[in-house]
Design goal:
It is found in: Cytoplasm. This protein is an alpha/beta fold. Helix 1 packs parallel to helix 4 and helix 26 packs antiparallel against helix 27. It is built from 27 helices and 22 strands. The strands form three sheets. The chain has an eight-stranded mixed sheet. Strands 15-16-17-18-19-20-21-22 form an eight-stranded parallel β-barrel, surrounded by six helices. It folds into four domains: 167 residues, Beta-Lactamase, CATH 3.30.450.40; 117 residues, 3-Layer(bba) Sandwich (Glucose Oxidase, domain 1), CATH 3.50.30; 123 residues, PtsI, HPr-binding domain (Enzyme I, Chain A, domain 2, Orthogonal Bundle); 280 residues, Phosphoenolpyruvate-binding domains (TIM Barrel, Alpha-Beta Barrel). It binds phosphoenolpyruvate and magnesium ion. Phosphoenolpyruvate binds next to strand 16 and helix 22.
Length: 761
C-alpha cells in the first residue's frame, strides 16, 4: 500500500500540468481500487462551484463542462462537512443530485473524500460502483490517505499558474497572477527577475534561452568528457579496495554517459534554444521520473545514479558559466529557491531591487539582512514557479508579502505610486536624523542599529543611530571559505567600533547553528534549533571563542566602546564560563600592551529558560538584550523559518508580551541596561509597547530606525502606556495587532510609517 501511494504521488508530482496530474490521479486510483468510476471535482475560486475536472468511468466529455453549486449534490455535502461520505445507494440519499450528461445514473455506491490543503477545501475525490455495496474501511482509508498526500501537490499545480480560476480564459490568466508569501522586508520593487541557484543543484536550474547553441553544445560535451575522466580516476583510485563486482558501479555510470540517447536528447533541446544547464535538467528529470515509476527497486536505484551524474555534469558546466557578478548587469529582482545570507554577499548591492525566496520566512536571516539593507523582500512564496521567472517582469510587494508575474500597465501604475510615496517618506526621514528619539512628553528612548556588513555603518549613521545594539559577527564568517584569523577579525571589528566611536558597539559572539551554517563548518543535526547553537558551539570550541574575544578586545584599543554579548544562553553556568574566558582574554591582550578597558558584557534573553532566570542572569552581567526573534520561536514552538507556520509566528502573541513584561519586572532593581534587539524592536507598533513596558534601548535595522523615531516623537509616554494596558488584556496576537493599528490611526501616527496608497490586497 505504501509503495503504491508513493508511486502515485511521485507520478502526480512529476506531471507537467494540472490536467495531466488530475488525469493520472483518476486513472491510477480507479485501477488501484478496482472501481468503475474515479472522478475529481475542484472548486472554482470565482464561482465557488465544484467543477468536474477529470474522470474515468463517467463520460469523458463531461469533464470541464459539468459543475455543482457548493451546496448541491453529494459532492457539495462532502465539501460542506469536510468529511468522507460513503453510501451503498447514493441515489437514495436526499442530497443526491443527478448530473446530466455524465452517465452516472448506472452507479449506485459512492465514496467521496474532501481534498483539503491548509484548511481550505480544494475539491472532492470520488469513486463509484454499479454494484450496491458500501466501500469497506480499508478502501476509505486508502482514499483519505491519498487525498491528504495529493492535496499539497494539487494546490501547488493550481497555484503555479496551471489554473487560477478554472473557468477563466487563458489570456487573462497570464497577466497579474499573484503568488502569496510572507513579508520579508517592506517596500515595493518593479523589475525583471534573475533566478539564482546554488552550484550543482540540478532541481533548481531555471529555464533560459540561448542565442549561441553551438557554444552551449561544446560546453556540454566538454563537461561530459570531464565527468568521464573523473569517474575513470575514481574507479582506478578505489580499485584496490573493492571487488570487481563493486567496481561495476562505475561501469554503469560510464555506460549511462556513453549512451547517446541521453546526450542526444540534451543536444536536441539545446538546438531548440534551451541553454545547456536547462536542457540537462529537463532530460535528467524526465529519465529520473521514468526510473522512479518502476516497480523494481534495483531500477529505481538507477534514478539516483542518473541524478548524481546530472549534478556532476552540471558542476562542470557551472565552472564555465558566467560568474555570479557578471550576471547582474542591471538592477533586478533576485529570485531563489532558498536565498541565503552568503548568496546576498556575492551580488553587487546596487543591482538588487528586491528579493524573493521560495523557502524561508520573515525571520530568516536573509530577510533580516534585507531589512538592514532596505531591500524589499518577500519570503516563503511556496507556489512560485520560480524556475520560469528568469528575465520575466515582476512586481514585488514587501508590505503584504506577494509577488505578481507579468504585471499589466494598470497594476504597474498603481504600484509605481506606492514607490513614489515611499520616496517622499524617505525624504521626510532625512530631516529626523539629528533629532532625539523623544516622546512629546519628554521620555527619551535610545535607538541603536543591528549590523552585520561593513556597508551597514554608513547607512546607520546617516539614519541617526546612537550606537550598535547587535553586531552579528556570523555574517563576516559566513561570506568566507574558512574561519577568519584573529588578525582578520581585529580589522573587521575595528571598522564597526571606529565607525561608531564613542557610541557603544555591541558585538555578539559567533551565533552559528540553527539556520546559520558556515560553509566550512557544517553542523548536521535532526533538530538544529534545539541543538548545537550559539554559545554552546563556541564554549565547546575554545580556540574559536578565545580568538574572537581577543580580536574584539584588541579592536577596541583606545576606543573603549566595546560591549560583548552572549547568544543562546540557557543557564547561568554558560555565563560564568564565558565571563571567566573573557576576563582571561582581556588580561592577555592587556599584557600584550594594548590600551584596552574591560568591556561591558551582556546576555541575550532568547530562550524561555532565560526569561525565568532574568534576575539571576542580570546579577552576573552589565546588560540584558532580548532576542525577540528566537524568544518568539521558542515560546510559541514555531519555527521562525517555516512558511507553513508563519501565520502562527507573532511577537504580538500575549505569551510573548507577558514574557517581555516579566523581564522588565524582574530586573527593575538590578541596575542593568535593558534592550530589545530582535526584529520586534524595529516594528513601530511593538516599539511603542516596549517603550511603555520600560525598555530603554531598542536596536533595529537602519531601515526601520527613522520610522520608529517618527512615531515615538509624535506620541506621549502616557499614550503609549494606555495602549499597552489595553492590549495586555487581549487574548490573542491578531487582536493585539488590530487594536494597535486602530490606536495608531487614532493617534495619527500610522501615516508616518507606510505609504497611504495601500498595496493591492
Ligand atoms: C534574535 O533572536 O532575536 C536575535 C536578535 O538574534 P538572531 O536573529 O541573529 O538569531
Ligand atoms: Mg537569536
Amino acid at each position: 500500500m505504501l509503495g503504491l501511494l508513493r508511486q502515485i504521488t511521485q507520478e502526480v508530482t512529476d506531471a507537467q500540468s494540472l490536467p495531466a496530474a488530475l488525469d493520472i490521479i483518476v486513472r491510477r486510483v480507479r485501477r488501484a481500487m478496482r472501481t468503475e468510476v474515479c472522478s475529481i471535482y475542484l472548486v472554482d475560486n470565482l464561482t465557488s462551484e465544484y467543477v468536474l475536472m477529470a474522470t474515468r468511468g463517467l463520460h469523458s466529455t463531461a469533464a470541464g463542462s459539468v459543475s455543482l453549486k457548493e451546496d448541491e449534490g453529494l459532492v457539495g455535502l462532502v465539501g460542506r462537512r469536510a468529511e468522507p461520505v460513503n453510501l451503498e445507494n447514493a441515489q437514495a440519499h436526499p442530497s443526491y443530485c443527478y448530473l446530466e450528461g455524465t452517465g452516472e445514473e448506472r452507479f449506485r455506491s459512492f465514496l467521496g473524500v474532501p481534498i483539503i490543503h491548509h484548511r481550505q477545501i480544494l475539491g472532492v475525490l470520488v469513486v463509484q460502483h454499479e454494484e450496491q455495496r458500501r466501500f469497506d474501511e480499508g478502501e476509505e482509508a486508502f482514499l483519505i490517505t491519498l487525498s491528504a498526500q495529493l492535496a499539497g501537490v494539487i494546490a501547488h499545480a493550481e497555484a503555479t499558474g496551471a489554473i487560477n480560476s478554472i473557468s477563466a480564459d487563458q489570456e487573462k490568466m497570464a497577466a497579474d497572477v499573484r503568488y502569496k508569501g510572507v513579508p520579508g522586508s517592506s517596500g515595493v520593487a518593479i523589475g525583471r527577475g534573475v533566478v539564482v541557484f546554488p552550484p550543482a543543484d540540478l532541481n533548481v536550474i531555471p529555464d533560459r534561452t540561448t542565442d549561441t547553441p553551438e557554444t552551449e553544445i561544446s560546453d556540454f560535451y566538454q563537461a561530459l568528457e570531464a565527468v568521464r575522466t573523473d569517474i575513470r580516476l575514481a574507479s582506478d583510485r578505489i580499485s584496490e579496495h573493492v571487488s570487481e563486482d563493486e567496481k561495476g558501479l562505475f561501469d554503469v555510470y560510464l555506460k549511462i554517459l556513453d549512451d547517446d540517447s541521453i546526450a542526444g536528447e540534451i543536444v536536441r533541446k539545446i538546438n531548440d534554444g534551451q541553454w545547456a544547464q536547462g536542457a540537462l535538467r529537463q532530460v535528467i528529470q524526465a529519465h529520473v521520473k521514468q526510473f522512479n515509476a518502476m516497480d523494481d527497486s534495483y531500477l529505481r536505484e538507477r534514478a539516483t545514479d542518473l541524478r548524481d551524474l546530472g549534478c556532476r555534469i552540471l558542476s562542470h558546466l557551472q565552472e564555465k558559466g558566467p560568474k555570479i557578478k557578471e550576471r547582474f548587469s542591471e538592477p533586478s529582482i533576485i529570485i531563489g529557491e532558498e536565498l541565503t545570507a552568503s548568496m546576498l554577499g556575492e551580488i553587487p548591492i546596487h543591482n538588487i531591487k528586491g528579493l524573493v525566496s521560495v523557502k524561508g520566512s520573515g525571520n530568516s536571516h536573509v530577510a533580516i539582512l534585507a531589512r538592514a539593507m532596505g531591500i524589499p523582500t518577500v519570503m516563503g512564496v511556496l507556489d512560485l514557479p520560480y524556475a520560469q521567472l528568469d528575465k520575466v517582469e515582476l512586481i514585488l510587494d514587501g508590505y503584504l508579502g506577494q509577488v505578481f508575474t507579468y504585471p499589466s500597465d494598470n497594476l504597474k501604475e498603481n504600484f509605481q505610486q506606492v514607490v513614489n510615496e515611499e520616496r517622499q517618506l524617505e525624504k521626510q526621514y532625512e530631516t529626523l536624523k539629528d533629532l532625539p528619539c523623544e516622546t512629546k512628553d519628554g521620555h527619551r528612548l535610545n535607538l541603536y542599529v543591528n549590523t552585520g556588513l561593513s556597508a551597514d555603518i554608513g547607512r546607520s549613521l546617516d539614519r541617526g543611530a546612537e550606537g550598535i545594539g547587535l553586531y552579528r559577527t556570523e555574517v563576516p564568517f559566513m561570506v568566507r571559505d574558512r574561519f577568519p584569523t584573529e588578525a582578520e577579525q581585529v580589522q573587521i571589528y575595528r571598522l564597526q567600533l571606529e565607525g561608531f566611536a564613542p557610541a557603544p558597539v555591541t558585538v555578539r559572539t559567533l551565533d552559528i547553528g540553527g539556520d546559520k551554517a558556515l560553509p566550512y563548518f557544517p553542523i548536521e543535526e535532526a533538530n538544529p534549533f534545539l541543538g548545537w547553537r550559539g554559545i554552546r558551539v563556541t564554549l565547546d570550541h575554545l580556540e574559536i571563542f578565545m580568538a574572537q574575544i581577543r580580536a574584539m578586545i584588541k579592536a577596541s584599543a583606545d576606543l573603549h566602546n566595546l560591549k560583548i554579548m552572549l547568544p543562546m544562553i540557557s543557564n547561568a553556568a554558560e555565563v560564568e564560563e564565558a565571563l571567566a574566558l573573557i576576563r582571561r582574554a582581556f588580561a592577555e591582550v592587556k599584557e600584550e600592551g594594548y590600551n584596552v578597558k574591560m568591556p561591558r558584557v551582556g546576555v541575550m534573553i532568547e530562550v524561555p529558560a532565560a526569561v525565568y532566570q532574568a534576575k539571576e542572569l542580570a546579577s552576573l552581567v552589565d546588560f540584558l538584550s532580548v532576542g525577540s526573534n528566537d524568544l518568539t520561536q521558542y515560546l510559541l514552538a514555531v519555527d521562525r523559518n517555516n512558511p507553513r507556520v508563519a501565520s502562527l509566528y507573532s511577537s504580538h502573541h500575549p505569551a510573548v508580551l507577558r514574557a517581555l513584561y516579566s523581564i522588565v519586572d524582574q530586573v527593575r532593581d538590578e541596575g542593568v541596561g535593558l534592550s530589545v534587539c530582535g526584529e520586534m524592536a524595529g516594528d513601530p507598533m511593538s516599539a511603542i509597547l516596549l517603550m511603555a513596558m520600560g525598555y530603554d534601548v531598542l536596536s533595529m535595522s537602519a531601515t526601520s530606525l527613522p520610522k520608529v523615531k517618527a512615531v515615538i516623537r509624535n506620541i506621549t509616554m502616557a499614550q503609549a502606556q494606555d495602549m499597552l494596558s489595553e492590549v495586555m488584556e487581549l487574548p490573542h496576537a491578531e487582536a493585539v495587532t488590530q487594536t494597535m493599528t486602530r490606536l495608531m490611526r487614532e493617534a495619527n501616527v500610522e501615516r508616518l510609517i507606510r505609504p497611504s496608497k495601500t498595496t493591492i490586497e
